[in-house]
Amino acid sequence: MASKAGDDPESLMSLCTVFCLKNLRRTMCYSGEHSRLQLRPDVFLPGEICDRLVNVYMDLLHTDSDFEPQDGFFQLFSDPRSTRLTRLQLREELVLDRDLEAIAKQDLMELHLTYCSRLTSRGLRTLCSFRHSLRSLSLFGCSDIFFRKGGAPLAYSEEDEEDLEEHLHRPSVDQDFSFQGFNRLRLLNLGGLPAELDVETLLRPLPALTSLDLSAVHLPRPAFLTQWKERLASLVLYNVELTEELIHTLLQMSRLRHLDISRENQRTSKFKMTRKILSSIVQSLVHLVSLDISGHIMLDNCTVPAFEDAVGRPSIEPCKSSIYPFQELKRPLQFLGLYNTTLCNVTHIPAYKVTGSKNEDQILNAIEAYTEQRPELAHRAINQLFDIARIQHCSQLLRALQLVITALKTHKYDKSIQVTGSAALFYLTNTEYRSDQSVRLRRQVIQVVLNGMEQYQEVTVQRNCCLTLCNFSIPEELEFQYHRVNLLLLKILEPARQDESIQRIAVHLCNALVCQVDNDHKEAVGKMGFVKTMLNLIQKKLQDRMCDQVMEFSWSALWNITDETPDNCQMFLECNGMNLFLECLKEFPDKQELHRNMLGLLGNVAEVKALRPQLLTKQFITVFSELLDSKADGIEVSYNACGVLAHIMFDGSDVWTMEEPKRSHVMDKMWAAIQSWDVSSRRNINYSLSLSLSLSLSVSVSVSLSLSPPPLSLSLWSVASKYCPLLIKEGGVILLQKVLELESSHQETKDMARKVMEQCENFKEDPMDTSR
Questions:
Q1: What is the 8-class DSSP label of residue 214?
Q2: Which residues of 121-130 are buried (b: 16+ CB within 10 A; e: fewer)?
Q3: DSSP string, 101-128
Q4: Among the four residues 316, 517, 519, 728, which has the most C-beta atoms within 10 Å?
Q5: Going by C-beta distance under 8 Å and a sequence separation of 6 or more, which residues neighbour residue 662?
Q6: What are the CA-CA distances from residue 606 to residues 121, 138, 522, 609, 626 (Å)?
Q7: Is the distance from CB of 277 to CB of 251 less than 8 angstroms?
Q8: CA gap 329, 278 in Å, rounded
Q9: To 5 degrees, how large is the angle CA 596–CA 597–CA 601?
Q10: 3-state SS string over 220-263?
């Protein structure tokens, strides 16, 4: 049997790491002085495990809403005698200066800081602690780390007071920091370095660099790059304005294997890529295996004529290249970035992996290449993947899903990524692709969808996320996040005036989530405010005099959540539910589905003996009696009304204290209704009522038929129409025979018992199917 996409199990290391991080005080730590987190004295952790603990800790903070930051976590790794850190990847505002200071004694080899907006020059000075060991450093998007907070000048006059306040809040460049002494540093990423810094001076103490990323960095004098022309193997100049001087400098970097001179947008560049420049790059940089020229406008024709391009099957051989300059390559490139250029549309491209927008493969390559540090490009590529999944067919489903999931995790706070990513997930998880997806993969989708719902109250994100959840089997596939998803949906439904489409989808999901789950789940959701939220929606619709899907789904959800849950039934009564029931009946007398849902709910309330006295009023009993005659929705409304009254009748005549309507009159109407129903009619109702009354049947027979005829007849009718196989299995036919033998049995009851026994005869030869 072939495994489904993404079906590989989690490694034991991964499972143990997550468990330890979620249970630090029960595993490797204890509460020290002032309840501070302390590493147990007998714990010694090697580098591989320490690195994993910190990196997974950061991942959980970004992706698991239940995982809270642990105060003093980085302090656990302060002593290199018991813990050893070597390779860390930290991102975004969760990283503070004190976290770097806590691990200052570690001999870090790799430190990648990405978008760490809360790091200041304090953190920058801490980096010097790692200068003897650090080989790879990324400060991508960490521009604030090069600034110290503003301070007051040594002396100022009263006239300068206004200027002083501005000075105090104006950060200044930290002039004291230098890369002097970082002798082992080989890979450096300074992407997004502020223009106030002189990059040439900053990099001068690093003669041994082999990889440099200066994305979006201002390079007024690019010639300084030639100091690394004999060493630099990788140079990234994304969104750097190209000039003739810079191109001339690049052509001297003869050792380059990877060159990225791509741009986000063609319109923002004054530079035009020519065939001559591209040919010069290919000819001069003979060791190139990776080149990215995405986002550039080609000034003249770089491609072969269309008739020549169409000849033969697509080839990666340089001699057959549809792009003239690449015909001079000695071998195909490993990677070629052509995203947002016309060159990606040609047939013969001499590269194993190409980014572009021509087909699914190019688009997925683009998402993969640009997600980490170029969300603006990843967003566009995901949008193009969305079109493929929506209009065509996604042939690389596993890869597509994993890339979109990664993008949503990595850029949790990027609204454009969240909008396009959640839209793509809706189409990638629909019925067409479902059979190819594993449980684990679908759970990952649910996690990132809920993250999006949590982070953004914006209409488009909420709608996309809710629609995506509709692609899952509910409640089964959402049960592992049951509490969280219900809280999020109820939060969506809180505003009095919510977007109509989101409201409709959210109520539908709420209804599905409380259907066919155990009572503990229902009680927990009830305590979250589920009942009150649904009644508020109903109240709002009544004010608008509108009976739409939201109204019907809300009553249906209340029907489901009150099933065999007395606490929720009580909440319904306490929150003015009965008055809303009467108002809905009055306002919408012809809405059959609405009546069915409301009566089903009241049947659940009537099952709770302690609550039945609240239903025993002239107003309510009259309404229930009138609904016995209803022919709405087949027999559904009549049946459910009869069920409510049957429970009330079961308490006996002593509790019936009102003069009108008379108990006997209501019982006669119940019997007339039961007699009018067709046993063979198909019904779509909540059968817990029938089962509870059927149980009452057996109890009643054993106590010489103390049950009143209409409730007993309703119970027998329910058995006749639905439960014959179960009745046979449980020995119910013998009980029915006793009903016939008892002199106290009413003739109508005996007739119904005979009808049930006849039905049972028809089932005796059929296989037992208790699932019905």
A1: -
A2: bbbbbbbbbb
A3: HHTTTS--SEEEEES-TT--HHHHHHHG
A4: 517
A5: none
A6: 68, 66, 18, 7, 17
A7: no
A8: 11
A9: 115
A10: CCHHHHHHHCCCCCEEECCCCCCCHHHHHHHCCCCCCCEEECCC
pLDDT beneath 50: ranges in the chain:
1-2, 151-156, 164, 166-168, 685-707, 720, 767-772
The upper half-sphere exposure of residue 127, i.e. CA atoms within 13 Å in the direction of its Cβ, equals 27
Bond from prior residue into 475 cis (ω within 30 degrees of 0): yes
35-40, long-range: CB within 8 Å, 24+ apart, which pairs? 36/71, 36/72, 36/75, 37/70, 37/71, 37/72, 37/73, 37/75, 37/76, 38/76, 39/76, 39/79, 39/82, 39/83
Residue 677 vs residues 626, 685, 713, 756: alpha-carbon distances, Å: 16, 15, 12, 14
Q: How many CB atoms lie within 10 A of CB 284?
A: 14
Give the tokens for residue 309.
């391009």
Tell me which residue has tokens 């001079």: 328
Please give the Cα distance from 320 to 71 (Å, whole number).
60
CA distance 708 to 133: 88
pLDDT of residue 681: 58
Distance of alpha carbon 455 from alpha carbon 467, whole angstroms? 17
Q: How far apart are CA 55 and CA 60, in angstroms?
A: 9
The residue type at 533: T
Q: Are 168 and 151 in contact (CB under 8 A)?
A: yes
- The residue assigned the tokens 């005080």 is 25
Length in residues, the chain: 772
Alpha-carbon dihedral 241, 244, 245, 248, rounded to 10 degrees: 120
d(CA 341, CA 337) in angstroms, rounded, equals: 9
* Strand order through the sheet with 234-236: 87-91, 110-114, 136-140, 187-189, 211-213, 234-236, 258-260, 290-292, 333-337, 351-355
Q: Which of 689, 516, 664 is nearest to 600 (CA)?
A: 689
Task: Give the separation between CA 192 and CA 142, rounded to whole angstroms.
Answer: 7
Beta bridge partners of 112: 89, 138
Q: How far is CA 94 from CA 58, 121, 617, in A?
A: 8, 16, 60
Alpha helices, H only, 514-565: 519-527, 530-543, 549-561
- The confidence score (pLDDT) of residue 571 equals 95
Task: Give yes or no for a contact between 638 and 627, defined as CB atoms under 8 angstroms apart.
Answer: yes
- Residue 23 tokens read as 């249970």
Q: Write the DSSP assignment of 701-759 as a string of letters.
A: HHTTS-S-HHHHHHHHHHIIIIIHHHHHHTTHHHHHHHHHH-TTS-HHHHHHHHHHHHH
Pairing, β 136-140 against β 187-189? parallel
The structure tokens 């990027």 sit at 414
Provide the β-strand partners of residue 235: 212, 259
d(CA 719, CA 713): 10
Q: What's the confidence (pLDDT) of residue 531?
A: 94
Can you give the pLDDT at residue 652? 81
Distances (CA, A) of 543 to 243, 530, 546: 66, 20, 8
pLDDT at 703: 35
Token code pair at residue 287:
């060791």
Specify which residues 114 forms β-bridges with: 91, 140
The token duo for 166 is 């501005």
Assigned token pair, 514: 């409380």
pLDDT given at position 707: 44
How confident is the model at residue 765, as a pLDDT? 53
Residue 165, classed as helix, strand or coil, is helix
Amino acid at 511: N
Bridge-partner residues for 188, per DSSP? 137, 212
Ramachandran class of 462: left when φ > 0, alpha when ψ lies in -120 to 50, beta otherwise: alpha
